[in-house]
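Supplementary Methods. Inverse-folding protocol.

Structures were first reduced to a discrete structure-token string of length 320. This string, shown here, constituted the complete conditioning input.
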């Protein structure tokens, strides 16, 4: 087998899985990571009551022991990926989705209108990573918008950050919620109240700070492109007094990463020209990708499969 040199961008689940298998096969692997620690979303995006840091390190430590070279504090863009592709046999893009969709409603720029990923990051930097950041300190009522696993995590962290009342508002019903049933049950066990068929249309404020959120009562119509029943407005409204509104309606790529335009993308997602299992070749022949940046927000299990399939592909080429 030829010994190859591989650069991995992102030390999250996909990148770590790829690195472990490539190092085991004897290749040289450098892992470039924007943060100053490895683990990706497992470390800073998922609270310790779901994944403890000890469990995260079980993915990181083997890569360290096998000789993986972590290069931290590297916030790279497409121009950097292209330069690395000239130095390495393969470059693997394994970073996640770093932006959250804005609610896009009046008042979402008020103080107290928060971003789910930034909130989780601040919470976990102190609570899980023991870094010198201040954990969010909430009071009164917090309203989470969305019903995915991230929304459930944020709601449970809000409870632990001092919110006296925590709501989740979601425009569809319980059966259509994208989170796992267990995540919702655990959030409710923490005291979170879920309000279904409720869609925010305006954040109300006073003196520049959130004081309430106005929501339209919804009903469900015919299935839409996602296969789920589409939410339809009824024209009836309710107002929830609150101190915070936290958007958790989906993660999206940072389109500013693509500063050259040589790697084909679609709204910030990498477009694959070929795939080998869950290993996706980009429009630059020796740059591959996997994980959320090509497939959209998926589970850690999907990310692990992407990383392992990339390593399998490289090993097959090295043996050819």
């Amino acid at each position: 087998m030829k010994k190859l040199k591989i650069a991995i961008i992102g030390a999250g689940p996909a990148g770590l899985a790829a690195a472990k298998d490539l190092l085991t096969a004897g290749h040289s692997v450098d892992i470039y990571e924007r943060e100053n620690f490895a683990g990706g979303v497992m470390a800073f995006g998922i609270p310790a009551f779901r994944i403890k840091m000890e469990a995260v390190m079980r993915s990181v430590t083997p890569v360290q022991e096998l000789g993986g070279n972590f290069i931290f504090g590297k916030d790279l863009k497409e121009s950097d990926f292209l330069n690395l592709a000239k130095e390495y046999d393969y470059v693997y893009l394994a970073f996640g989705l770093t932006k959250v969709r804005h609610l896009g409603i009046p008042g979402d720029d008020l103080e107290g209108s928060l971003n789910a990923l930034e909130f989780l990051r601040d919470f976990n930097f102190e609570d899980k990573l023991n870094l010198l950041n201040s954990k969010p300190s909430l009071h009164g009522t917090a309203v989470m918008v969305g019903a995915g696993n991230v929304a459930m995590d944020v709601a449970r962290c809000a409870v632990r950050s001092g919110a006296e009342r925590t709501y989740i508002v979601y425009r569809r019903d319980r059966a259509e919620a994208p989170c796992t049933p267990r995540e919702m049950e655990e959030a409710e066990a923490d005291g979170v109240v879920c309000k279904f068929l409720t869609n925010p249309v305006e954040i109300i404020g006073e003196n520049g700070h959130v004081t309430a959120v106005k929501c339209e009562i919804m009903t469900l119509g015919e299935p839409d492109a996602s296969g789920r029943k589409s939410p339809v407005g009824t024209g009836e409204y309710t107002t929830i007094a609150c101190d915070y509104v936290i958007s958790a309606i989906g993660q999206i790529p940072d389109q500013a990463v693509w500063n050259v335009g040589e790697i084909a993308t679609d709204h910030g997602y990498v477009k694959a020209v070929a795939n080998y299992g869950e290993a996706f070749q980009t429009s630059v022949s020796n740059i591959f990708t996997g994980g959320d940046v090509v497939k959209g927000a998926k589970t850690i299990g999907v990310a692990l499969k992407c990383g392992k399939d990339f390593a399998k592909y490289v090993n097959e080429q090295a043996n050819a």
